[in-house]
Design goal:
This protein is of the alpha/beta class. It has ten helices and nine strands. The chain has two domains: about 140 residues, 3-Layer(aba) Sandwich (Oxidized Rhodanese, domain 1), CATH 3.40.250.10; about 110 residues, Rhodanese-like domain (Oxidized Rhodanese, domain 1), CATH 3.40.250.10.
Length: about 280
């Protein structure tokens, strides 16, 4: 049986709806309950709902990013409530390009579940092709999900401060946010000094699916130069969109990049940390 570890097509998902586990990850940062409302109105048959704030993040306490990673035990408990088994093939989707879905994709790999992929084109492509939609909410039995944590995939703020010259920081936010010209969410505009910008939307073709592996590899290698993927640390505003760049690098055949989950919203929680803007 083929194990899917990056992206899957809408055709492949429909062919395997009876056997694959599917998670709807739709979310709107400005309207946090919209995704769950949309899920109730219709979703891919068999899909469970994964709420970014409630299921894929911990509560924000003190100086942390806007979407801190949950404790591994809490995340495993949620996976158990979903009845997920180690051998399950998982497919994550959101409204379109896969930014929120890639967060669950990354988190599952973080706890050792490799058989997970993002639906290429998301629900937008699924609906455009006239594929089935359901309002039924699955009620899986409880399972005990084992822990195989991979802490090496995470980089904390201390390592960023200490080893910045040894790392290549990739910022997944839009260029205007990276340059500090606009900041609609966080209280401080700019980027971590020394970072490079790779807008996550640039991973997608005009029709909303991922660019092919060759194109992605060419674009990422233009940023990496001679540096290996293992020196890349992806970040964004709060550790969500950055997962999209991790995924894109995997599609491109450049595995091993890491995630700074706290990202910009964590970095600026200490006013003593330096801020880069356009030109620096």
């Amino acid at each position: 049986m083929t194990v899917h570890t990056t992206i899957v097509s809408t055709e492949a998902l429909q062919d395997n709806l009876r056997s694959w586990r599917v998670f709807d990850c739709r979310h709107d940062l400005m309207r946090p309950e919209l995704g769950q409302q949309q899920y109730r109105e219709g979703h891919i048959p068999g899909a469970a709902f994964a709420h970014l704030d409630q299921d894929l993040s911990a509560a924000r306490e003190g100086r942390t990013g806007r979407h801190p990673l949950p404790y591994p035990g809490a995340f495993l408990a949620w996976l158990g409530q979903q009845g997920l088994r180690r051998e399950d093939q998982v497919v994550c989707y959101d409204a379109g390009g896969g930014v929120t879905a890639s967060r669950l994709w990354w988190m599952l790999r973080w706890v050792g579940h490799d058989a997970v992929a993002v639906l290429d084109g998301g629900l937008a492509k699924w609906k455009a092709e006239g594929r089935p939609i359901s309002t039924d909410v699955p009620r899986p039995g409880h399972a005990s999900y084992p822990l195989m944590l991979r802490p090496e995939r995470v980089v904390g703020v201390g390592a960023i401060e200490r080893d910045a010259d040894k790392l290549l920081l990739l910022d997944a936010r839009s260029p205007v946010r990276f340059r500090g010209e606009q900041e609609p969410i966080d209280p401080v505009a700019g980027h971590i000094p020394g970072a490079r910008n790779r807008f996550c939307n640039d991973n997608l073709a005009p029709d909303g699916v991922f660019k092919d592996a060759k194109a992605l590899r060419t674009e990422f290698e233009a940023i990496l130069g001679r540096r290996p993927p293992g020196e890349v640390v992806n970040y964004c505003g709060s550790g969500v969109a950055a997962c999209h760049n991790v995924l894109a690098m995997e599609i491109a055949g450049l595995p091993g990049s890491r995630l700074y989950p706290g990202s910009w919203s964590d970095w600026i929680s200490d006013p003593k940390r330096p801020v880069g803007t356009a030109g620096r």
